Amino acid sequence: MTELFNLLIAEDDHILATTIKLMVPAGFKVYITNNPKNIPDHVFFHAAMVDMHLISKVGERPDGPDMIAAIIKKNPQTEIISMSGDLNRENMESAIKAGAQRFLSKPLSAEEVTLGLEKILAYWQLRQFEFLNKSNIQLIGSSKETETLRKKIASLKQEKSAVLIEGETGTGKEVVARILNQQEGKRPFVTINCAAINENLFESEFFGHVKGAFTGADTNKLGLAEAAHGGDLFLDEIEALPLSQQAKLLRFLESGEIRKVGAKDSILVQTRIIVASNQPLTQLISEKKFREDLYFRLSSQKIEISPLRNRTDDVTEIANYFIAQEKPRRNKTIDNDAMMALKTYSWPGNVRELKRVCEQLVLTSPLPMIRKIDIEHFLFKSIPDSDVTDSQSNMNCSLDEYMQAQEKKIIEFILKNTNDVDAAAQKLKVSKSNLYKKIKDHGITYE
Question: Exposed, middle or buried by CB within 10 Å (0-12, 13-18, 19+), for 77?
Fold first, then answer.
């Protein structure tokens, strides 16, 4: 791997510094110093490991805090790991106060050093899209909230426990899940939408079944949990999982074992569970709609994604990215007033809605330059009035039948203009599972 990231080891024990260098994972170019005044001026350091008891001259006080301050002054974005054999509270607080983000105790463990540096490496790779561009999965934006999200994702590298991702619909929960999977290297990634699976079929889908287990089971079926063995299983809209199935998921999380429907024996699989919810699960627990014990299992590692309206600094970058995706076919740009209009909109559908709007603007804007008037026309057009004067509706339908017909019209209109069930549910202010039911009840088809 080409060395792209620079690591500074600040240690006055040359043998220990050399030993640490041998522990450093691929991807870092290592520099060693024992004096705050000898930090190379021409190098941007992505990470630094600093001995808190570093002494550059015999008889002087430790230079560790001064070294951290000097590094941050030169490179405020440097990720700093402080090292010490003295684990008293004062020493650790001194390291954090000086600007360190992590703390390692001496004697150093090769595993801890490698894992800590790999998390930092993952963070910088996220920022530079080094591996994300290969599969076109990107976390775009430079707001404070997005930088915090990147650091959280990177901190979960090589973690095996379940991950809970919470955020409004359209904020990019599946994107985060895929990045979590991708930063571990090539490994399976299997998805399941809990809202789209019939309660009676969930066990068969999740665990699989054997031939003859029930009527219609003509062959053995591989379950999603087994298909994700050695990788990640992403459960989207976990809030829609019925209580009866939540208990089965909890047992799997506790044991790692699955038993296919109709099978006698259980098998062990190694699968990390990543779940996403559009609603705070703690609220559903208080409403007796979600198991508290399952929540505790799922939330040991938790990621919260801010809605787009709370990180408007990202709107410009995200919009420009989506518009650029259409440039090979339609060479459109957007003017400053139009971009300001995008930034002042509340985005109830979040990034997913912004993506759809950008795609539609590129298609419908009459000029090569997307203007503010184009955006206002597109964002604020309303649902057309229903044809309440239809004589057939007024004379031959009951009130309930008429209301059902109007509901169908509105759902069809929203789906036609969004082509996305998540965004439609957000606009209609109903849950995605409820909207799926209405679509089925009305016999609505959509692309």
Answer: exposed
Report the alpha-carbon distance of residue 191 to residue 189 in Å, rounded. Answer: 7
Q: Which amino acid is residue 325, in one-letter code? A: Q
Six-digit token string for 329: 């076919």
User: Which stretches of 52-187 are DSSP H helices?
Assistant: 64-74, 89-98, 110-128, 144-155, 173-182
**Residue 284: partners with Cβ closer than 8 Å, 6 or more residues away:** 239, 290
Is the pTM here over 0.70, yes or no?
Answer: no
Which residues are bridge partners to 265 per DSSP? none
For residue 271 the two structure tokens come to 């699968």
CA–CA dist 444, 438 (Å, integer): 8
Q: Among 123, 168, 175, 174, which residue's Cα sits nearest to residue 150?
A: 123
| pLDDT on residue 130 | 37
Residues whose CB falls within 8 Å of the CB of residue 250, separated by 6 or more in sequence, listed in order:
291, 293, 294, 297
Share of the chain above pLDDT 90, in %: 31
The pLDDT of residue 382: 46
pLDDT at residue 103 in the model: 86
pLDDT level of residue 363 (50, 70, 90 thresholds) = confident
